[in-house]
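User: What would this chain look like folded?
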Amino acid sequence: MKNFFDLTMPSDGRNEAFARSVVASFAIVCSPTVEEINDLKTAVSEAVTNAIVHAYPNEVGLVKLHCEADDASREVTVVVEDYGKGIENLDEALEPFFTTSRDDERSGMGFTIIQTFTDSMCVTSKVSEGTTVTMKKVFRSC
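Assistant: Here's the prediction, encoded as structure tokens.
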């Protein structure tokens, strides 16, 4: 049986560390190595940060986190969803180094990092309705 949880939180930067810690704690049932759990935490951190920074640039909105763990297949699925401004050109946004931020602290590597540290990533978005990032991580180490 797959176990799951849903969490809805304000798009506040203080919640990024909380989100990745919750997912990491939840994924322990799949017996990941320290490296594997750190990969998952990094991917979750990037997805949640994208929602906080880009979905609601001048306001606080909601970020929904859905997580499923299948200890039999050792697979964790994480969905990060926002209801913000959406992404106008998704193909362009998925390119490395692309950013709409005027902030010099943003590198435009969020989606690339998520792809690097997970086994799969799917992004859907509608302008003025929000963005959903779905990530899967399979823990292979014994």
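The beta strands are 3-10, 62-70, 75-82, 120-126, 130-138. If you want, I can go into more detail on any region.
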